Amino acid sequence: MSASDSVPRVGVWLIGARGSVATTVVAGCAAMTAGLHPPTGLVTETPPFAGSGLPALSALVFGGHDTVDCPLPKRAEALAAGGVLPHGLPAAVSAELTVAEREIRPGGPLPGDTRTEEDLIAAFAADIRSFVRRGRLARAVVVNVASTEPAPTGEALPPSSLYAAAALRAGCPYVNFTPSTGLHHAALARPAETSGLPHAGRDGKTGQTLLRSVLGPMFTQRALTVRAWSGTNLLGGGDGASLADPAAAAAKNAGKERVLADTLAGTPEGEVHIDDVPALGDWKTAWDHIAFDGFLGTRMILQTTWQGCDSALAAPLVLDLARLTARAHERGLSGPLGELGFYFKDPVGPGPSGLGEQYTELLGFARRLRAQPAEGGPGGGRSGTPAHGCGAGEQQ
Ligand SMILES: NC(=O)c1ccc[n+]([C@@H]2O[C@H](COP(=O)([O-])OP(=O)(O)OC[C@H]3O[C@@H](n4cnc5c(N)ncnc54)[C@H](O)[C@@H]3O)[C@@H](O)[C@H]2O)c1
Fold first, then answer.
1. Whose CA is nearest to atom 8 of ligand 1?
2. 3-203+312-386, which class in CATH?
3. Whole-prediction pTM value?
4. Class of the 208-309 domain?
5. Average pLDDT score over residue span 301-325
6. Which of 143, 179, 245, 383 has the smallest C-beta neighbourhood within 10 Å, fewest atoms?
7. 139-144 β-sheet, strand order
8. Is the pLDDT of residue 2 over 80?
């Protein structure tokens, strides 16, 4: 057995593996592992997580599905040209990008695809299982970072749900980093429950909603009445193009508005808009305009401007989620991981919506993941029911 074989390796199977977020995840993980960049933005690299038994960044192995064929090293070059990745990074980590590129398989449905839902689920599950086998991985986490879909209207499974079903069938934990349906389809409720697998979602909380989950509780705690909360986002890149579809934008905006409904005493007036501005690429500007009443009904306004690089905000969260969910799987937890609400706009389970309380829950989760269960055993907590015998093996 070689030294590298002695450290259990953990797979991260990315749906949308050639997108901006996925490419930044793979390049970023390689850059940190090589010591080229510090782990800025990775919550799991901070002291409270040191004893949680999370897989090391160097133990992560990447693969995934995509429906486009632009190779990962080329995609990384394009992101560097746009200032998303540091200049020179794609060359510095080209070996790791090439290794991941070899593990990317064609996704679906492709234009003109005649395969049935069952054909697609079976094919995706076979790809994931073969990734786990080939890499001799201890387990793999499936993470959806594909383009946002409109909410489905009929009974047919949207692509995100086909992949979620494939993850269950391959015996893998599942994380939905997008607002797409994924495991939230009625047809998948029972298989998800009986799978014995942990899952988390939906839609990474990286910018505007992150700020809302801090400011919403502030207004409530200071007994200030929010009358209207309006937001506008300008965004380019692949995500901007996908969200130019009003149905896809509606799926995204529902999560952004949920945090206000959950943290404020009433539902304020106002909407969120997303405009596709291709010239901005991956750089997003989000404005929030908050009208509120102070003492004696005095009218006041708070305005915020968030200018972020979307993929650089998202990638560390994806790595955190992959590590936490992999460890939850190793510890035998199953079901919705509500304590990961810190990371999501529209979290699974009934947890709090304010960022401070969500962080406290996350720290509790980090303690629960430690090798020696705290008093009361690993079942203490409101989600992630302990399950048995969930290795990387497939579900029946
Ligand atoms: N800050 C953030 O960047 C952020 C935050 C929260 C959520 N998200 C979500 O992450 C997702 C990815 O964002 P991005 O900027 O990387 O977008 P992107 O357009 O760059 O990448 C999406 C990738 O998904 C692929 N894809 C589309 N349909 C597919 C299918 N059926 N099967 C497999 N692959 C498919 C596309 O080919 C593309 O490579 C989006 O849904 C976005 O809303 C991003």
1. 178
2. alpha beta
3. 0.92
4. alpha beta
5. 97
6. 245
7. 104-106, 60-66, 10-15, 139-144, 174-176, 198-200, 333-336, 385-386
8. no
Task: Give residue limits of the domains in the chain.
Answer: 3-203+312-386, 208-309
Q: Compute the distance between CA of residue 114 and CA of residue 62 in angstroms, rounded to an integer.
A: 29
Number of helices and strands in the chain (H, E): 13, 12
Q: Quick one: which of 369, 267, 264, 314 has its CA closest to 48? A: 369
What is the distance between the terminal CA atoms of the chain, rounded to a whole angstrom? 31
Q: Which atom of ligand 1 is nearest to the CA of 22?
A: 16
Contact 104, 76 (CB under 8 A): no
Residue 228: strand, helix, or coil: strand
Ligand 1 centroid from CA 149, angstroms: 9
In this structure, the strands spanning 272-276 and 333-336 are: unpaired
Rounded-to-integer distance, Cα 105 and Cα 304, Å? 41
CB-facing half-sphere around the CA of 188: CA atoms within 13 A:
25
Please state whether beta strands 299-309 and 283-293 pair in parallel, antiparallel, or not at all (unpaired).
Answer: antiparallel
d(CA 357, CA 361): 6
- pLDDT tens, 266-282? 889 999 888 999 999 88
CA of 345 from ligand 1 middle (Å) equals: 16
Residues 6+ apart with CB under 8 A from 178: 144, 145, 146, 147, 148, 149, 160, 202, 203, 204
Range from 71-80, 278-287, 308-317 carrying the lowest mean pLDDT: 278-287
At 375, the amino acid letter reads E
Give the list of residues 6+ apart from residue 208 with CB closer than 8 angstroms, or none: 231, 233, 256, 272, 286, 288, 306
Mutate to test the pocket of ligand 1, among 147, 208, 342 (most ligand atoms within 8 A of CB): 147
Close Cβ partners of 240 (under 8 Å, ≥ 6 residues apart): 274, 276, 277, 278, 280
Quote the pLDDT of residue 250. Answer: 80
Residue nearest to atom 6 of ligand 1 (CA): 204
